[in-house]
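Contributing new records

If you add data, match the layout below exactly. Sequence lines come first and carry their own label; structure lines follow with theirs. Keep one chain per record. Anything else will be rejected by the validation script.
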Amino acid sequence: MGFDFDGAADGGVQSSAADTADSTAVMEMEEPELAAESEATSKPSRRRKSEAATAESMAAKQRDISVSEFFAKNRHLLGFDNPRKALLTAVKEAVDNSLDACEEAHILPHITVTIAPVDGSENKFRMTVKDNGPGIVAKQVPNIFARLLYGSKFHSLKMSRGQQGIGISAAGMYGLLTTGEPVQIMTRTSGKKPANHYHVQIDTTKNRPEVILDEECEFDLPHGTSVTITMEGRYQKGKQSIDEYLAQTAIANPHAAFTYIAPDGKTYDYPRQSNEMPFIPVEIKPHPYGVEVGVLFKMARQTEARTMREFLRSDFSRISQAIAEDLLKKSKLSVNMKPWDLTIKDAERLHGVINSTKLMAPPTDCIGPIGEEKLVDGLKRVVDAEFYTSCTRKPAVYRGNPFLVEAALAYGCKDASEAGNTDEEEDTGMPAEKEEKDQLMRLVRFANRVPLLYQQSACATYKAVLDVNWRSYGLGQSRGALPSGPVMLMVHIASVWVPFTSESKEAVAHYPEIIKEIKLAVQECGRKLGMHVRKQRRIKDEMIKRGYIEIYLPHIGQALKDILTLKDPQVEKLVEKLKVTLEKSRTV
């Protein structure tokens, strides 16, 4: 081992010396190159350094942001955050516009929805929605379909599906961004006039429409509109699908007929259930309770009224001449004062007096309920159940805006996806609570007759339903969850301005007044459900007891025959009397 160690040591010394010599040679050879590299590194870097900004340079970069440019970058705010949802949102916006137009023109709607894949693609679809509405004036077509925040409903205080003037133009913008193709529109206002065919697209920088094509064309209806948008999307059946949206829309709109041609070529018809037009809302003036100080000040500057008394009486609802004079007197303002002379301090004083004075609630002819009978008919249209009930609350007010809440409930749904197997329960004799644990209530939400398919847990409707004690109505319920059972609950909120949580109109904000009304409507349906469930359980218990009597009485009779040595006729008579006695005691 010593020999190996020494040898290794010698070899190591020799190797080290050789390496040192080689490295010295290398250093000598690379010295000029290293020197050049050192000289290069000593020079300033060629990379651009960030210069400090000045007020002038920052001001030069500032410019207006178009609303369409903003939403093009933030399209998830409008419901276009994924291909599947985008396709549904586009259909929803087009159908909502068609229903609103038909109802405003007092026309029973017939709407055809067609979804077709483009060139067999799985992620590119052509959506077409055609209606028999009043049509659109030619010069308004580009603005309606290719300009955001353009419409007639934003400033109108009456119930309508659309509110912001964003929906259908946003769908066209999404189609342009994802496929580069413009929106195609065909419309006709009268059978005596030719139809117009447009191709339009939005200039997102200026939020202005660009007309690509404008020509006359053939249209198979005397009046109506057809809009076609080609977009990137994904079609999938099930919950939160186009199929589900149209089925739910049929529930809330029994006066409308729908034809749906799916991407697989199948046609689904939802025939009209009622030939009666729904209640047509009437536009109202704003209620004083819903007007803030700044809005009151602005309205006074813009009114056509010549005096404050006339301004309060003509520009607001529920203010008569006598009430206007009383409000102005308490505010220490002259009844003949010019509205445009009102100062911000005067407006603050008047606003305080208005809110401390008891005024009548706003008129309710601006909102129209579906109706209790039609709610039940709508539920029967899509779900088969053993028990139905509904409730329509009286109108209430939040922030000066009138609204009403309706609820409808179906129990014992026969659809396997929504209800359990009641036959199995009867065969096994298991209690109803055992079966109901297998499924949760199906909650269907509507706002102004429009289904809300997304963001259920963020909605005021969901919160109100969770707060109801469903155990008192015969249903099982875990903490923080919907009740369990074969139940479908439908809740509809109708208002002149639905307070959605976002521009995509998917959930209702948590206003205490709205939550309270939803709870009261749902509780009324729940009480009726509780009576039905308890009655059904009593009947079931009685049937079980009757079965016990029929099973064991013959054995009792045989035993009495053996003990008392009775004859067969006597035994039969005794068994019959026993049965009657047990039946009476069972029903007491």
